Amino acid sequence: MGRTQDTARGTGRLLIRRAQVFPTAARAARFLGVAPSAYLPPSDVPPPDAALDVPLMDVRIAGGRIITLSGRPLDPLPGEWVIDAGGGALIPGLHDHHVHLMSLAAAARSVWAGPPTVVDRSGLQAALRTAPAAGSVLAADPVAAADQDPGIAPKPGMGGVEGGWVRAVGYHPSVAGDLDRYVLDELCARRPVRVQHRGGALWVLNSAAIERAGVDSCRLPGVERDGAGLPTGRLWRMDDWLRENPAVPSVSLDLARVGRQAAARGVTGFTDATPGRGAGERALLVAAAASGALPQRLDLMRPEPGSHPARDRSDTGDRSDTGDRSDTGDRSDTGRPAGPGPRAGVGRRDDRGAGAARDARAEPDASPSRDGVPAMEAADGTARVTDGPVKIILDDDRLPGLDRLICRVDAAHQRGHPVAVHCVTRVQTVLTLAALTAAGPVDQRRFAGQPPSVGRHRLVGRHAAGSGDRIEHGAVIPAELYGELRGAGLTVVTQPNFVAERGDHYLAEVTDEDPASLYPAASLVRAGVRLAAGTDGPFGGSDPWAAVYAAVHRRTAAGRTLGGHERLGSAAALCLFLGHPGDPARLRTVRPGAPADLCLTSCGLADLLAEPSAAWVRLTLVAGVPIHAALA
Ligand SMILES: [Zn+2]
Q1: pTM for this model (two decimals)
Q2: Does residue 244 sit in the same domain as residue 156?
Q3: Which of 83, 123, 303, 550 is deepest in the core (most CB within 10 A)?
């Protein structure tokens, strides 16, 4: 592009010509078969073929927003950056509605210890023995491998690569069974090793690591011990302790890499679903947004009121384990294995304290800050960082009673915050629905005493308005609950990618449920249940396009179809990532006045829907500012 164009790029004044715009309000109605104001992409979307006769339009962007959509060619204005879309699709930027950014950044600095790259004992042994010291590799991720920097923030006395700590993540028992210190010692005794189960709640340490970390003298209940009182090496939900342990090396986080990679995939926003996020971790994310390291919009779920999030550790520089306590939607990893074990951590929360804060979440038009963090605005004057629903984690082996869960929901609602409840088993879903139904939606209380500007989009004639409360994962949802889910206005945020990534394991291992019924999608949509999606990265693959593809095909890695009746049409699948951050099942459309958070692809809409892939992404804009450009 010429010099004039280079100059124009920075002005935020763009003219995108000859683009297939989708979805516009009218087109959403036409192609999705729903009213423009409706929330849901139904499953009966027409196949991506010639029926998608989407006319070309010119789109003008200024001040971070879409100004004009025109079916007739627009003449460039002075100083405008002109992009010829050449018939490419222009869609809202993808929003990953459930992700763990810190863990994603940390995973990029760890050894991968599970499928698909590590599938057996010898593979695990090789991975552990050849691993560089904690913090410098990600063999499983070519983007990270190509984009590596030393990335290590060793504490004093950590030593170099030789003999240094091994930090491995993504382990699954299909590789080498249940791990303990003795199994790990056989695999790698010479270096301290810690391996995270892909469920996120369990770390297993070998004997060298146990000794160096001083596990034996730790009295926390998360330390599993054998009959003789010796640590087994299995640490349950002890990420905070590991993080703050001076003997355990830290990993520097490269959030910028996460941001770049996502931008190249057309992702313009994240909802970080990490439970119990502390103020320090929040500050890091806000800083990453402020510096541009994370150029996307961020919606950050809140810790439960009165919970005790990890202490502020931004001053220690140790961020290796931030987010490790993240939940995962992995259906096969719920609860801990049978047998005696300590009860630890999450789930025992009281309601002391009051994280009182005005609600500043919802869509980008909402007010931008809370808790004294300065407002950070995108180029269109909307918030770059918002605070989302309160994240509630449930573990099957210590489920709260219904009354207790209602209290926890109430505690959030009374502060004006909806909740997002982790549900991967039948009992969790049943319990959660009962609690949310009993607690009622947050809006009634919020609107009783607060100005209607808060959450106003819920007031403007949308009969199907959501309650704001969310079911995360929704791995198992009994069909008889669909009506209640719909009636309560709950949104299910699913992970279609798990069907592809873990479907073979589900088929082999899940016996208490019909594997074909896991992660329902089409049946929910047909029943009018609000549905959206997130990748759950890094516990799931973080490419939303892969998730879209998985939602369309529901094919496992081994090529088997899992729950074919739950397949979505490709437009409906794509729309799972096109919802509002604060209302994930409400579709964002490309319309004048909307924030210019957009993704332009090199192919037309029919090709995009026939073969959804990040490889098509040509340009990604947040509030009209390019955060990724692969323009010829
Ligand atoms: Zn998660």
Answers
A1: 0.77
A2: yes
A3: 550
Q: Report how far ligand 1's centroid is from the alpha carbon of 453 (Å).
A: 30
Task: Kindly state whether residues 401 and 502 are assigned to the same domain.
Answer: yes
Structure confidence at residue 30 (pLDDT): 54
Which structural domain, as residue segments, surrounds residue 236?
109-251
Task: Please give the C-alpha separations between residue 124 and each of 179, 183, 209, 249, 502, in angstroms, as whole numbers.
Answer: 11, 11, 17, 21, 18
CA of 100 to the centre of ligand 1 (A): 6
Examine residue 443 and state whether it is found in any structural domain, yes or no.
yes
The alpha carbon of 99 and the centre of ligand 1 are apart by a number of angstroms equal to: 6
CA distance 469 to 419: 5
Same domain, 529 and 628: no
- Biggest distance spanned by C-alpha atoms of the chain: 80
pLDDT, tens digit (0-9, with 9 covering 90-100), for 437-488:
999 888 544 444 443 333 333 322 233 457 899 999 999 999 999 999 998 9
Higher pLDDT, 141 or 521: 521
> What CATH number does the domain containing 80 carry?
2.30.40.10
User: What is the tens place of the pLDDT at every residue in 24-77?
Assistant: 766 555 555 444 444 334 433 444 433 466 789 999 999 999 999 999 999 999
Alpha helices in 342-472 (DSSP H): 402-414, 426-439, 442-449
Q: How far does the centroid of ligand 1 lie from the alpha carbon of residue 326, in Å?
A: 6
Determine the distance separating the centroid of ligand 1 and the alpha carbon of 454, expressed in angstroms.
27
User: What is the spatial distance between Cα 518 and Cα 20, in angstroms, rounded to a whole number?
Assistant: 35
Ligand 1 centroid to residue 301 C-alpha, Å: 11
- Residue 147's pLDDT is 31
Is there a contact between 242 and 309 (Cβ–Cβ < 8 Å)? no
Cα of 98 from ligand 1 centre, angstroms: 6
Centre of ligand 1 to C-alpha 159, Å, is 33
pLDDT score recorded for residue 306: 76
Return mean pLDDT, the chain.
Answer: 78
Between the CA of 388 and the centroid of ligand 1 the distance, in Å, is: 14
Q: Count how many domains the chain has.
A: 3
Q: What is the pLDDT of residue 376?
A: 75
Distance from residue 70's CA to the centre of ligand 1 (Å): 40
Local structure of residue 189 (DSSP, 8 states): -
